[in-house]
Design goal:
The complex is a heterodimer of chains A (about 250) and B (about 475).
Chain A: E1 3-14, E2 17-29, E3 34-39, H1 45-52, E4 60-65, E5 68-69, H2 75-85, E6 86-90, H3 101-106, H4 120-130, H5 146-158, E7 164-168, H6 176-192, E8 196-200, H7 204-207, E9 212-217, E10 220-226
Chain B: H1 3-16, H2 18-53, E1 58-62, H3 64-67, H4 83-91, E2 95-103, E3 108-112, H5 114-117, E4 121-124, E5 127-130, E6 164-166, E7 172-174, H6 182-186, E8 191-193, E9 198-200, E10 203-207, H7 209-223, H8 238-241, E11 245-250, E12 264-273, E13 282-285, H9 286-297, E14 307-312, H10 318-328, E15 332-333, H11 335-379, H12 381-389, H13 394-434, H14 450-476, H15 480-484
Parallel strand pairs in B: 5-13, 10-12
Antiparallel strand pairs in B: 1-14, 1-15, 2-5, 2-14, 3-4, 3-11, 6-7, 8-9, 11-12
Classes of the chains: A alpha/beta (about 250), B alpha+beta (about 475).
The structure holds adenosine-5'-triphosphate and magnesium ion (MG).
Chain lengths: ~250, ~475
Amino acid sequence: MKLSVKGLRRIFTHGEESRRALVDITLSIESGEFVAIMGRSGSGKTTLLNAIGGLDTRFEGEVRLGEKSLREMSEAELASFRHRHLGFVFQSYNLLNHLTVLENVLLPSYFGPLRDGGDPLEVATGLLDRVGLGDRLRSRPTELSGGQRQRVAIARALLCRPSVLLCDEPTGSLDRATGLTILQLFEELNREDEITVVLVTHEPHVAAVARRKIRLDEGRIASDQEQEPRWPVEGEGAPPEAEGTP
Amino acid sequence: MKLGKYRALVGQSLRRHRGHFMVSSVGVIIGVATLMLFTGLGSGVRQTVLEDVFVIGQLEVVDPAARAGLRGGGLLGGAGLDDRRVEEILELPGAAAAFPKMKLTFPSRASGGGGLLGRDLGIEFIGDGVPPNLIEEEVKDALGFEDYGAPVECSADEDCREGLRCGDEGICEGKSCRPANEDEVCGEIAYCNRDRGQCAYPIPILVSPQVLEIYNGSVHTALRDSQGIGGRLPRLTEEMLIGFEFDIIFGESFMGRAADRRVQRERGRLVGFSDRAIQMGATMPLGYVIRLNEEFSGESAGDTYHSILVEAESNDAVAGLAQLLQEEMGLELSDRHQQAERAGLLILLLTLLFNLIALVILAVAALNITHSFSMMVMERRQEIGLMRALGAKRRDIQALVVGEATVVGLFAGAVGIGVGLGIAWGVDRLFDTQVGHFPFKPETLFAFSPWMFGLGLGVAVVFCWIGALLPALRAGRVEPSAALSGR
Ligand SMILES: Nc1ncnc2c1ncn2[C@@H]1O[C@H](COP(=O)(O)OP(=O)(O)OP(=O)(O)O)[C@@H](O)[C@H]1O
Ligand SMILES: [Mg+2]
């Protein structure tokens, strides 16, 4: 699914004060790309991602996901579009601590059937196996390490087989080595499952593993270039072969 | 959202916020308990007052002409109360039975009670008659409710009842007797009437249960501690009184005597208690009254009825029936009906007034729910934002909050009903043990019916919904982006 953004502006107003978070962004991301969005804190990365994901629709300009323009969708249509096509991964995992790992992964299935009609329980256990947590189904998120929690969040994002994965600082709370295994998971999903990955980060070594790097500065695109993915050489962080749990 | 999933989600949330929900439900529990209590009380009092005191299912029809003193009704074409009238009334929709009644039209008194009370008492005897075949099921004495005085034709003594013989005119009459040989000559049931020196059957008497109620509730209670005979009066039960015999002196009373100063002494025997009996007096088979009236007040005194007691098929049919009797048939209802209507209205108003208190409590409870649900929505903003990001529609989030409110409502409603019933039970115990007997003192002050439980649950849920309305709308408005970034 192609993502295209045309003339996107987002202004936050609080009383008298107003802040221009995004200023006239135009870009398009083809199906199957692995894109990193970089920029300093406050440069508008999260704001852009929220606009693309339809989490925030109070923008000016146009965001198209495949054939559909976000602005033309009703609230309910947008919700079910998110459910079927988009997966979100956040820096703070956003797991529900009163639910088990398995229940967390199953959460999206409460809001609609899986896209290919599969059995949610089967798909969820399969995904947890794939992210190396097949033996922690009944654990609570609080009993897991940061890296494990983020894997649970990724499994949750994958439950409905999204075509696009929107990740906001997914490694921001993790140490470098753990972060690397998460990045390898994204790389694998992008390569094997052909999922478009849009990854927001302010860390250069994270952005380096993407095949395209967009840099934001004060709400504008400062640069947008293809690059050769570069995996860190230090430690055992050798490129693509995905590893198990850290 | 599928129903099963929805239930699971509501269940998860309820388990997690158990404390919150308990606190939210307290007010509703109190409100529903109050509502139950007052509704049950209103209905209980209504039942006692309307069914026992006023006997709402009955209407007593009187002849307007007779009431105004225009006896005979010749000018109006004989609009009196007769058997034809009874038939017409029975045809009316909603009428289940009709009992013609005739009063004794001359003074009489009764005396007796030595066996029960220690000394004979004398009182004015107010009596009326009803057709005996309509009363049978309420008669509890072996004597039955029959007209023993009706003439029976005979050709030999065997044709007559025990204690009677075939007279010269071919009609049964009492055997000659003396008090000394009463048992041999008159048999088991008949007695020897001293004035006539003949065996006779006691007159079967029915009394209204209200007479007993009022005796026990006021006369007995008031005189209990007095000196003399009053202080020794026992409390009476129906069982004690069935079979009780006393003398009736027709034609003579404390107020005056019948025109020709003749007096006839008979024996009466209490055979049962019936709502169809005269309110303050004694009811006997109609035949006795007709004959006695003819004898003491002249030939025409036995021709027309004084009133007709009409029983409705149900309490709901009473109003319609009353209207038909008054407007279609031009009859007049006794004051009792109006009093009953007024009492019913008063009870209804009081019940509504008290239930208003319950509603105020529930309204405060709803406000409390609004508050605690709002807090809960605030606490769960991030969770709500996440659900929205994962595909939950606004409607799903709102439904979730409403679902939680529904469960809180059902829970609080059920507990409130239980608490209400518990308090009612306690009040009844206190009422039973701490409050002395008074007329018509009921065994329970409350009357609960299934619809009230439905009402309690329904009201609880509705008030929870009202309380949860704003929080639900607010939850639906949570912006996923803001919630997820913690803003
Ligand atoms: N809800 C909001 N209300 C007001 N201002 C906002 C809001 N969201 C973002 N902003 C402002 O918009 C600008 C861009 O914010 P954004 O969160 O997109 O930055 P970011 O690049 O994601 O930064 P970080 O790396 O720290 O996450 C910032 O100046 C921020 O203060
Ligand atoms: Mg950000």
